[in-house]
Amino acid sequence: QVQLVESGGGLVQPGGSLRLSCAASGSLASLALTSWYRQVPGKERELVARSTRGGVINYADSVKGRFTISRDNAKNTVYLQMNNLKPEDTAVYHCNADTVWQPWGVAGDYWGQGTQVTVSS
């Protein structure tokens, strides 16, 4: 029922910035939470940022102070602003959402296809 499409990934030098976008097929008002995960082959998926409909925001320790998640309800879009990027941030970043609340670390039912972020000099 919910489709999510990510964009904004690319190649960036260490210390640089990128802004990822996640366009939802419907109103963000129907989504209790939206999140960003990242995936590296051979490693566990990592929840990096999460925003609830009520405005509660949480980050993984690995990105705290560098990444910012935001929701633009008028545009039905979720953003992930990534600053001071490091090589270890290289991954496929996926948007994730659910219509009902889930505890931290439990993924929602809906996933985007992902966008590649590569941080390299």
Strand content: over 45%
Note the overall shape: globular
Report how far the terminal alpha carbons are from each other: 40 Å
Oligomeric composition of the shown chains: single chain
Mean pLDDT: 95
Structural class of the secondary elements?
Answer: mainly beta
Kindly state the number of beta strands.
11
Can you walk me through this structure?
0% of the residues lie in helices and 48% in strands. Strands 2, 4, 5, 6, 9, 10 and 11 form a seven-stranded mixed sheet that branches. The chain contains no helices and eleven strands. By secondary structure, it is mostly beta strands.
Descriptive labels:
single chain, 121 residues, mainly beta, seven-stranded mixed β-sheet, four-stranded antiparallel β-sheet, 11 strands, 0% helix
